[in-house]
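Model: Ready when you are.
Researcher: Fold this.
Model:
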Amino acid sequence: MNVEPYITKDGKQLRLGYTTGSCAAAAAKAAAWMLLSGNLRESISLQTPKGIRLELPVLEIFRATDRVSCAIRKDSGDDPDITDGALIFASVSRHSEPGIIIDGEKGVGRVTKPGLDQPVGAAAINSVPRHMIRENLEEVCETFDYRDGLSVIISVPEGEKLAEKTFNPRLGIIGGISILGTSGIVEPMSDQALIDTIRLELKQRRINGADTILLTPGNYGMDFLTGELGIDPNLPVMTSNFIGDALDACKEFGFRNALLVGHIGKLVKIAGGMLNTHSRYGDCRMEILASYAGACGLHPSLIKEMLGCVTCDEALRILKSCNLDKAVLSLLSDRISFHLNHRTAGQPEVESIVFSKVHGLLCETQNAKSFLHFLREEK
């Protein structure tokens, strides 16, 4: 890395790492460079979406006239990650048709259920890593004035064994790990350090006079708020999975109102009483949606089908096909409101807005719009 490789959290210095997506893109870039130049490359530079440039050693190099393969070793920094130390390989060969073809082989999972980042049948290489691979290979092609196409195969020899320790099998991703990462960088942070950071931001907002606060768990919520609702990106406080802890802080610091805006994949868990939505504490999304669907009259065979869904969007498709989506979402919204306000004992009053990346705005509690309007005016 050409930046300070540490961040300070909770009074401790923690080392940054880089994602499997960054590894795959860097390996592909190095292999393409060696293939098109005919020269050896023992390190490679990669610009991550976060803006941090990496300089990574290139390992396990194999060179032939028509193909080059190499690997980058995953480094998770001080973040606990089962893929830490794994070799992420890329094999690059020439292709007669223009463009970049990306696929996965040994140790990279294959999608078998709908509703995930990639379609059924595709390698579990998510959208951002695919973009990184394509962008970096196009850069190499331009450097060497290469006009034909390239084929890229990503593999992880340990991937199938590592995947047994992940949620991949349950999500319908078989045969290996997923190649992931939205920023390209792994930022380690203990739970308590993150909660302390959230508390500090909330305390500062309150000291500066805010009495109504906008909360969102993460990037999906931020994208919806800024893209769909036109909210200033500086307005929301990101809570990560620690929604309950954030509400505790709101109560402690004396906020009058709070508005929580989140993706249904997170907020559906709140309807089941989970105020920490991290998957390690449980994944009851389908059970909650299916139970509410049953209460609204969904046929038992379709309830069973819902329980097998991978994502909430896929479950919503079933509900929409039976015209039960509005009834179920209304019940869901009521239960979310109950658990949020039970946590704060009504002070602050908490409203919520639930959305989906596929279906857009899904439901909102009674005073959510007025809270949102107030926040816009106050800003």
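Researcher: Now this one.
Model:
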Amino acid sequence: MKILSVNCGSSSVKYSLFEMKNEKKIAWGVVECIGLREACYVKQTINSKETKNSLRIANHTEALKLIIESLLDKENGSISDISEICVVGHRIVHGGNKFSKAVLVTEKMKRELKECFALAPLHNPAHYAGIIAVEKMLPKIPSVLVFDTAFHQTIPDYAYMYAIPYEYYKKDHIRKYGFHGSSHKYVSQIAATMLGKSLNKLKLIIAHLGNGSSITAVKKGKVIDTSMGFTPLQGVVMGTRCGDIDPAIICYILNKYPQQYKDANSLSSLMNNESGLLGVSGVSSDVRTILKMIRMGNKRSKLAFEMLCYSVKKYIGSYHGILNGIDGLIFTAGIGENSPIVRKLICKNLHALGIEIDTNKNNTYSNEQKFISTPESRVKVMVIPTNEELMIAREAKICFQSAH
């Protein structure tokens, strides 16, 4: 059984093809800069090396056509016929309060997804374009929508509500939704296996740290709280996102600089694209560059880095209290998996919470899951590479099989 995982961005299409019998990824790639002169196609298979080709791609349909053709390629392809793909799983950033689990694509589901466009205007319309493109290219193959927000639908109302007039929740569905759900769900399952316990007996904190970051508290396999909110802007300091700030700051900036910030889009750009590590350091949104600048004595880069780690530490302390102790702390995603210094600074002086990491284990690079806590640590600290594409494939398989 082969499943194609698809993740459509505003100008890109990422994909992975899995053989679900052994959950092996057999082909993967990305079409980037759709509609631009810099458009390119990077692809690889389990039996061939990565290749990169520049080309002209006008839209998502053309991108999917290119991907399908490469999968069918007689020399370097991974399938001999389209019918080998049983189902396509689509990553959808925002399902609002309409979707609490993966669903098969139907005309009704597409209409309801359109109603969520306003909640994620940069993401959901692109996902929808990908769904339409797949329907054109693979007309007889079912598609499944897998939502980033679905795993967080177990958050209790007192944790997901905002203390603004209730009518905005009833009328406009303004509430915390949370994101990176596929990643949090995947690594929580792996953590249970590593700990040799059932997930429904564990209390975990997951730190998904990348250009976008979110911290999630999981109790008995269900999300109790998460740092991202109505949008992915809320929470910890991120690459270009400000994370938690006093909302009155926005009113203050708007009043003081009316010519510079004339509308909601300009303010959104300020908080989403010009802030975070980039805004504070003035150098970069990439932790690797920030660390290089710190070694060169750049004080603003040092400040930005310390702000990032401190904001994550605050959420870990908060969720540790909410859960009344934890069994495991998990680091995942690009920064969480690959930056020992970030993990070290976040875990520093958390002994009172039972969190102690082993320096040698933490500094030893591995692309495999591992424990980095000391034998004395009451909390098992883990580094687990995330695999959102596989989680999407798993969810699509479950949904498809339950419908048949």
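Researcher: Key takeaway?
Model: The domain at 2-147 is CATH 3.30.420.40 (Nucleotidyltransferase; domain 5).
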